Amino acid sequence: DKEVRAIFLRLFAQLFQGYRSCLQLIRIHAEPVIHFHKAAFLGQRGLIENDFLTKVLNGMAFAGFVSERGPPFRACDLFDELVAFEVERIKAEEGNPPKMIKHVRELAEQLFRNENPNPHIAFQKVPRPTEGSHLRVHILPFPWINECRVQELLQEGLAKSQGAPPATRGDKKCVVPAGPPVGEF
After folding, report:
1. Phi and psi for 30 in degrees, rounded to 5?
2. Where is the UDENN domain (predicted)?
3. How far is it, in rounded angstroms, from Cα 172 to Cα 83?
4. Any idea what the Cα angle at residue 11 is, between residues 55 and 92, rounded to 5°?
């Protein structure tokens, strides 16, 4: 699952490399508007006649992409790093499948770590009752909850969580790296 996502992450990073150089921030309104120069992007990459990329850039998903990722000051992520800093690496790996596979696996591992910041915490799944279990006569009544024991368990859990790193990391906002200009591709 993560490796397939990593492949698509690389694909979109390659497709949109240099997109930040074609963004224009318009501050006429109270809320800034971000405009993407599609013609400049396609022209600088020499892909004006490319029907696929033209349709991608004209789609609603890309408009959402620009509005979400266009602001110059926001939380950065793995995609921003790929677009800005991994241009040469991705180019060098085009002719070398083992290096490409290694990079995909590294990206997949980063995706996994982003989604599971505390891998040592395991969640136990509660099994579903078997079919017809509600018809059984020998169902035992649910035991009374011992309030003291519940409080002890809560205190134990709080004590453990005090020393543990936070489960979610805060998104630190930073200036999004622009990466190389489009003409270099």
Report:
1. -60, -40
2. 1-76
3. 19
4. 130
Count how many Cα atoms sit within 13 Å of the Cα of residue 51 in the half-sphere of its side chain. Answer: 0
Give the pTM. 0.61
The answer to whether residue 39 is domain-embedded is: yes
Number of domains in the chain: 1
Q: Rounded to an integer, what distance in angstroms lies between the CA atom of residue 180 and that of residue 88?
A: 10
Domain of residue 59, residue span: 1-117+171-180
Residue among 41, 36, 40 at smallest CA distance from 25:
36
Q: Which of 30, 47, 31 is nearest to 19 (CA)?
A: 47
DSSP 183: G
Residues 6+ positions from 139 with CB-CB distance below 8 Å: none
Structure tokens of 36? 């993407």
Residue 57 CB: number of other CB atoms within 10 A? 22
In a domain, 33, yes or no: yes
DSSP state of 29: S
Count, residues in the chain: 185
pLDDT tens readout for residues 23-53: 888 877 777 788 888 888 888 888 888 888 8
> Using an 8 Å Cβ cutoff, are 53 and 38 in contact?
no
pLDDT tens, position by position, 67-124? 888 887 888 888 888 887 777 777 778 888 888 888 889 888 888 888 877 766 656 6
Q: Is 164 domain-assigned? A: no
